[in-house]
Amino acid sequence: MKIWIDGKLYEKEDAKISVFDHGLLYGDGIFEGIRAYNGNIFRLDQHLNRLWDGAKFILLDIPVTKQEMKDALKETLKANNLKDAYIRLVVTRGVGDLGLDPHKCKKGTVIIITSNISLYPAEVYEKGMQLATVPTQRFNVASWNARVKSLNYLNNIMAKLEGHQAGVPEVLMLDSNGYVVECSADNFFIVKDNKLFAPPQYLGALCGITRDAIIDLAKRRNIEVREEVFTRFEVWTADECFLSGTAAEVLPVVKVDNRVIADGMPGKMTKQLISDFKAIAPIEGEKF
Ligand code: PMP
Question: Among this protein's residues, is 149 annotated catalytic?
Fold first, then answer.
């Protein structure tokens, strides 16, 4: 496996960064998870726009242009002979000293890792997944905005750990008002009376690229899409629930907090959107 760091490809064993990198010391940096399907990188421009917006928010200068980043991604995929892949793009603040001051970091570090994707088992896609609400809440947007896909993912990791303790593979996270925000690493949707509901992004959910694709696909089918706040009441009484994310794609959710959603089977709209997503994933991308 070859890994790209700051302009060079390294074998996995030799792909190393400094212990003084602020990405390691402070989680000071940002990342992207991107998919390639059959030689096409899915919605690459959107991923890069999100990365650049995150960089702007944390005042980080990405030391390459978007075009150079695209070229580096494609070079790494080719070097690894991958047509279908999960791509992890990481930009850290770079090497500084032990103090917090980001100005000591003269240049950001860029890392590109490409690998085969490991999804949830096929059975979960057919039968649906179970979620549980966890005690760890999403941040109040005034203290930290989780729209930045930052290297500091401890809030998500705490939620994931609490999910493990509850015996579920993914979780539901609320904000301090009890509104549903998202999962630990996926966005969340519900369906009620043939309308599709998604928590609004101003609550501090990640602006998922898959979420956007699902909203597009629903609109193409003339489904009414509402981005508005809802609580667990609306989840427990929904007709359908599902989650979306680059790695998981679109996954039915059939139980939340041990409560069966509708009849406990993946819903009709969910199945339709899963099949629509499968159809666009290999074609809505940038060739490499
Ligand atoms: N929310 C969080 C917290 C995430 O980390 C992710 C990405 N894994 C998502 C939602 C889904 O976003 P995307 O569709 O862009 O992968």
Answer: yes
CATH code, 2-115: 3.30.470.10
C-alpha to C-alpha distance for 172 and 261, rounded to whole angstroms: 14
Q: What is the pLDDT of residues 202-261, one digit of tens each?
A: 999 999 999 999 999 999 999 999 999 999 999 999 999 999 999 999 999 999 999 999
Specify the ligand 1 atom closest to the Cα of 210: 14
What is the percent of the chain with per-residue pLDDT over 70, rounded to a whole number? 100
Nearest CA to ligand 1 atom 4: 185
Q: What's residue 119's pLDDT?
A: 77
As annotated, the residues of the chain forming the CATH 3.30.470.10 domain(s) are 2-115
Residue 202 CA to ligand 1 center (angstroms) comes to 15
Q: Which of 186, 217, 243 to mutate to test the pocket of ligand 1 (most atoms within 8 A of CB)?
A: 186
Fold topology of 122-281: D-amino Acid Aminotransferase; Chain A, domain 2 (3.20.10)
Q: At how many degrees (to 10) do helices 209-220 and 268-280 cross?
A: 110
Query: So what's the pLDDT on residue 34?
Result: 98
How many degrees, rounded to 5, is the angle at CA 34 between CA 106 and CA 25?
35
Residues lining ligand 1, Cβ inside 6 A: 33, 156, 182, 185-187, 206, 208-211, 244-246
pLDDT in tens, 111-148: 999 999 777 899 999 999 999 999 999 999 999 999 99
Residues of each domain in the chain carrying CATH 3.20.10.10: 122-281
CA distance 256 to 219: 26
What is the separation, in whole angstroms, between the first and last Cα of the chain?
Answer: 18
Residue 96 above 90 pLDDT? Answer: yes
Tell me the whole-structure pTM to 2 decimals: 0.97
